[in-house]
Amino acid sequence: MERHTLNHGKPLTLRFNFLFVPDVINLLSDHIANQIAAGEVIQRPASAVKEMLENAVDAGATEIQLVIKDAGKELIQVIDDGCGMSATDARMSFERHATSKIKDINDLFSIRTMGFRGEALASVAAVAQVEMKTRKADSEIGSRIVIEATEVKQQEPCATQPGTNLMVKNLFYNVPARRHFLKSNTTEFRHIVDEFTRVALAHPGVSFRLFHNGAEQYHLEKGKLKNRIVGLLGNSYEKNLVPVEEHTEFLNISGFIGKPDAATRTRGMQFFFINNRFIRSSYLHHALVQAYDGLIEKDAFPFYVLFLEIDPARVDVNVHPYQARGEV
Fold it and tell me: Is-contact 298 285, C-beta < 8 A?
C-alpha cells in the first residue's frame, strides 16, 4: 500500500507492508475437551467411584453394589436398581453437560441431587473403556452401550435387570502418564473406601455392598444412621456415639458426635454433610473443635457425623467440580 503526502511541496511516498497472520484460535474437538475435563473431574479411581455411586443414588436406587478389581485400575463396576434409562438417554448421558437434574438457571439454586454438571460420565468415558447396560422398569428390553475414549463402539438392545450396570475398565489406558502416577493398590483402594464411606453414610436408607478382587469388604443393610456408622467404622464406635438434633428457622442439624474417648490422633473421622452432600469446611470444623476445648488433648481430633439441612438457595455447591466444597 502506498500513501502520498507533501514534504515542503515535494511529493513523498510512504509504503506500508501488512503482515497477514492466519487465525490461531481453534474450537477443541469433543474428544480433546472431554480429556481436559477428565483431568479435573477424574483424578484417580476413587474419583470415578464417587461419580458413579452418586449417579446411582440420584437414580433412586435402594440397592447398590460396587465391584473393584486391582484397586480400580482394572475394573470399577456399579450395579444399581434405580430408574434406569432409555436407549436415547443412555447415549445422551455420555455427552458433556448432558444432565437430567437441571433444566434452567433457577434449578442451579435449588439443587438437591448429588450430581448436576453433566460432566461425570463424559469424563470417565474419555479416559477408560466403558460398558453400560440399563433398563427402565416399565421396559421389556434394555440397552447396552460400549464407549472407548469418547468413541461409541457399539449400542444395541440387550436383556438386563431394571436399573443400571456400569463398568469402567482399564482407567487411564489412553493416558499413560496419569496411570503411571497412580499410587500403590493399597493407597488407591483406601481412597476408594473413603468415597464409599461418605456416600454410604449420607444414605443409610440405601443398602450398599463393596467387593474388591472377588472378596466382599462391606455389606451394609438399609437402616438407621447409627447402624450405618457402626457397620462402616466398627463396633467400637457404638458406645461412644452421642445423638445431636437441633431445629432452627435457618437450618436443621442432626447426626452424632463422639464422646471424648472417641477422639483420635489422626484426621479422617470427621464428616459434615450439607443437604446430604459431603463437604470439607475448616470453619465448621474449627467451631466444633472449640466445643471440645478442655475435653480432649490439643492434638486430638473429635469424631462426628453431622448433617446440616438448609434451603438449597442459601448454599452454593457450584464451587469446584469435585463438589466437596460449598459456600453458605
Answer: no
Q: Is the entire prediction scored with pTM above 0.85?
A: no
For all residues of the chain together, what is the average pLDDT? Answer: 86
- What's the pLDDT at 116? 46
The residue with cell 467411584 is: 49
Strand pairing category for 163-169 and 207-212: unpaired
CB 145 within 8 A of CB 132: yes
Burial of 179 (0-12, 13-18, 19+ CB in 10 A): middle
pLDDT of 287: 93
Give the pLDDT confidence of 99-116 residue by residue, as tens digits.
Answer: 655 455 555 455 555 544
For residues 76 and 68, the answer to whether their CB atoms sit within 8 Å is yes
Longest alpha-carbon distance in the chain = 104
In the chain, the domains with their CATH numbers are: 30-223 (3.30.565.10), 233-314 (3.30.230.10)
